[in-house]
Amino acid sequence: MDRSFASDNNAPIAPEILQAILDANAGDALGYGEDEWTARAVERFREHFGAGTEVFFTFNGTGANVTALASLMQPWQSVLLPATAHLQTDECAAFERFTGSKMIPIAVRDAKLRCEDLEPYLQSGTSVHFPQPRMVSISQATEFGGVYQPDEIRAICTYAHEHGLLVHVDGARIANAAAALRTTPRALTVDLGVDVLTFGGTKNGLMLGEAICFFDPALHRQAAGYVRKQAMQLASKMRYIAAQFERLLAGDLWLKYASHSNAMAARLLELVRDIPGITITREAPCNAVFATMDRAAIERARSEFFFFTFDELLPEVRWMTHWATQPQDIEAFAAALRRAVS
Fold first, then answer.
1. Which long-range contacts (C-beta less than 8 Å, at least 24 apart) are formed by 304-313?
2. Average pLDDT estimate for 70-87
3. Domain boundary among 217, 251, 285
4. 201 lies in which domain range?
5. Which of 102, 164, 203, 283 could form an SS bridge with 131, CB 3.0 to 4.6 Å?
6. Residues 169 and 43 in one domain
């Protein structure tokens, strides 16, 4: 497979990140995060998010999400989230199995949660017959490629805190969202009242690795370190995850990768928007294009470039770009799509 448009998970490792891994591969280093690379990477996060930020590196997004929430919840509590959330649809009930807590998926119109969506789920009081809401979880960018505006996140955080809830952001693509909004990850999280962020690296140039950022460490009462170990997310050779993040957060490399990824999706949208037989279904300012096509056309196009069907009923497809997608890839894919529907 030369180039696909299935997922930013399919991208190769960015050369600067690969070099950072190689640079860290010299001599012995203490394990489990007691190394200089981890210390420097944590300081990078604090430069971006504030001196009080506490950081825990994990292997993958599911592990990061589950560890973050499990550190803040009890088994009788629940997390309120959109029914479209990755936690709900793509993590094989890992959260429920590991925590014993419950996810409460809420139907939303565009993958974005709003305060009025939460209100009906806060009416059970303290009855022992119902799980007690503790967390609100949103994805930035969303699973439909959209973004929350800062005022939308601030409203959710204010409403949640007024009702005794904490706010988690699944930031697998937080870099893409920040690039699309021309702002910073901090301005989309801690500055708006977010309590915990899972900061994505795998989808933005890294070989593997995510980072959990607690903006008020007192909230997890020192639980996160133990939870990460039990969740099998504590890397013995932590320096190789940390070194990637240290490089990613140096000189805004994260922004370079995400901006390029977004720009490639915008170029693809420009080339295919007016092709007869292709209907764009969603406005997605980040690195995804959503469209409907005839099923036979989908298969013809997929014979040249692999991509996923996002909604089998329509059918709706999703085309994703990443840091390594090149303009010539976009041109070739758009030509293949044109041939497929002709």
1. 304/333, 304/336, 304/340, 305/3, 305/4, 305/5, 305/332, 305/333, 305/336, 306/1, 306/4, 306/5, 306/6, 307/4, 307/5, 307/6, 308/6, 308/7
2. 97
3. 251
4. 14-251
5. 102
6. yes
